[in-house]
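Action item from last meeting closed. Structure (256 res):
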C-alpha cells in the first residue's frame, strides 16, 4: 500500500561548500519531519557531479518512505545569486554553473520540480521566521559565516533576495576573503583577532542597513561565546538557533 502523503511535507536540500544536507520539512510548522542527513559535496562541484550526488540522495530519501506529495517541488538552497532558477554567480563553486538553469538540471536528477533559492536567503528566511528572529519585526539581517559570507535581509517577514554582502569591498578586499570562517582558519587567527575583523565588517554593514537585529549563522556560530562578547555594536547581535538545519528548512519553506 502507498504511504499516505502529507500535503505540507517538502524535501529541503542545502548545497554547501563541503556537504549537501537534506531532510523532509513540515512546511505548515517549519519543523523537521525527518533527521537531517548529509553527503559530501563533490569536488569539484560541477553541475554533472552535483546532479549525480542528488540522484544518490534521492535513493536514500526513497528508503525513508517519507510520505512526500509525489509532484510537490523540492527546495534547494544553492550558493549563488539565483533568479528564476538560473545561477548568476559562482563565488565558491564551479564557474560552469553560471547561466545554467539549475531548477531544470536538478529537477531532472530528482524526478520532481525543483525551486532553487540562494543558500543564505534560505537560511535567513528560516532563522528570521522560525529561529533567532522569531517575533522580531522590522529589518532582520542574517549573515552566515562559512566558506564565504552569505547574507539575507528580511523586512517584516519578507525576504529581499540575493543580497551579496559577503562581496562588499573593504580595504581593497572582498569582506568574505577576510572575515569568513574559512578565512579565520586560513589566517590562523585566534578568537580575539577574528572578532576584530568581524567588528569592522559588522560596524560597516550596521551603518549601511540599520537593522533591528543581526543573526550570525554558519558552523562557526556554535562557538559564539568565543567572539560575540568582543563585539560592540548598537544593534543586538545573536547566534543562529537552527544550526545545520536552517538551509534545509528555508529551502523547503520557499518551495511550499
Ligand atoms: C556567495 C553567496 C553565498 C555565500 C554563502 C558567497 O560567496 O556569493 O551567493 O550565499 O557565499 O555560501
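Sequence:
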Amino acid at each position: 500500500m502507498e504511504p499516505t502523503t502529507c500535503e505540507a511535507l517538502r524535501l529541503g536540500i542545502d548545497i554547501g561548500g563541503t556537504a549537501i544536507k537534506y531532510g523532509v520539512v513540515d512546511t505548515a510548522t517549519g519543523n523537521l519531519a525527518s533527521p537531517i542527513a548529509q553527503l559530501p559535496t563533490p569536488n569539484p562541484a560541477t553541475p554533472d557531479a552535483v546532479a549525480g550526488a542528488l540522484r544518490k540522495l534521492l535513493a536514500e530519501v526513497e528508503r525513508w518512505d517519507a510520505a512526500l506529495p509525489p509532484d510537490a517541488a523540492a527546495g534547494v538552497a544553492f550558493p549563488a545569486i539565483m533568479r528564476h532558477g538560473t545561477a548568476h554567480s559562482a563565488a565558491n563553486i564551479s564557474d560552469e554553473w553560471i547561466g545554467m538553469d539549475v531548477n531544470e538540471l536538478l529537477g531532472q536528477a530528482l524526478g520532481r520540480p525543483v525551486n532553487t533559492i540562494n543558500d543564505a536567503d534560505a537560511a535567513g528566511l528560516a532563522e528570521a521566521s522560525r529561529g533567532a528572529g522569531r517575533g522580531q519585526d522590522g529589518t532582520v539581517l542574517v549573515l552566515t559565516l562559512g566558506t564565504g559570507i552569505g547574507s539575507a535581509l528580511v523586512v517584516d517577514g519578507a525576504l529581499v533576495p540575493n543580497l551579496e554582502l559577503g562581496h562588499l569591498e573593504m580595504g581593497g578586499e572582498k569582506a568574505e576573503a577576510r572575515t569568513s570562517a574559512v578565512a579565520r582558519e586560513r589566517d590562523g587567527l585566534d578568537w580575539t583577532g577574528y572578532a576584530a575583523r568581524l567588528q569592522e565588517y559588522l560596524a560597516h554593514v550596521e551603518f549601511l542597513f540599520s537593522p533591528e537585529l543581526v543573526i550570525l549563522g554558519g558552523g562557526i556560530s556554535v562557538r559564539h561565546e568565543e567572539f560575540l562578547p568582543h563585539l560592540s555594536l548598537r544593534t543586538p547581535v545573536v547566534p543562529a538557533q537552527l544550526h545545520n538545519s536552517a538551509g534545509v528548512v528555508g529551502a523547503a519553506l520557499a518551495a511550499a
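Note appended to the action item: The chain has two domains: 6-122+246-255, 135-240.
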